[in-house]
Amino acid sequence: MSIWRSPAAGLIAVAMLTFVRPVLGDPGIAAKLDDIEPLQIGAAAPTFTVYRENGSGWTFDPAGLQRPTLIIFYRGGWCGACNEQLRDMAAVIQDIEDLDVDVIFPNGDRPEILYTSLAPETKLAIEGLDYQLFSDVDLNAASAFGVAYVLDDETLARYRSREHWDLDDSSIDRHDALPLPSIFLVTADGKIAFTYHNPNTRIRLSATDLLQAVRENR
């Protein structure tokens, strides 16, 4: 496991956007997992736009933050480990928000299935909690943070063979790519104060360890 110590005020609503299918091989997306270059502690957080469930855009602007933001990238509602992580977070998300830290969850699903694609037990676990899920279907956010990468052919074929996974118009469908599950804590001055990622996508930082990291670095 690799750990590096490195929203609402900084999130600006923008008009409904029309999705345009980008060309595969976008230079902001690493050609393979080994080539990713995640932003490190002390770096300035980038501006990016993601999408709400209704398809409207929401822009994260670090220059406009009034309090820290915790950005948790996950792959999509089809991902078992991602569902486990979301359920684990249910025990601490209110504690994190009580520290005056906003929490957002960008992922590679298309907007309209952000919540409906989750496993039933995940929906139950997060019900009534402030889970702000956002579609990063074009990997704008993941690319800006250096954690977007193209899947190898074998993995792509395996994922696309899963008939019960809804990958239509996802980041896989558009780019053959995904965000690496990653965490970035951005302070109110727009700097990255903590980050976590692991190339083994099944290994996630526990919610209790994340809560401690937020307490120490916000």
What does this structure look like?
- With 218 residues, the protein is α+β, with helices and mostly antiparallel strands.
- The protein has one domain (3-16, 28-217): Glutaredoxin (3-Layer(aba) Sandwich), CATH 3.40.30.10.
- It has helices at residues 80-89, 93-98, 120-126, 140-144, 153-160, 171-175, 207-217; strands spanning 3-4, 11-16, 48-51, 56-60, 69-73, 102-107, 133-135, 148-150, 177-179, 182-186, 192-197.
- The strands form 3 sheets. A 6-stranded mixed sheet has the order 1-11-10-5-6-7. A 3-stranded antiparallel sheet has the order 2-4-3.
- Strand 6 (102-107), helix 3 and strand 7 form a beta-alpha-beta unit.
- Helix 1 (80-89) runs parallel beside helix 3.
- The longest helix has 11 residues, at 207-217.
- It is globular.
- Mean pLDDT is 89; it is low at 1-25.
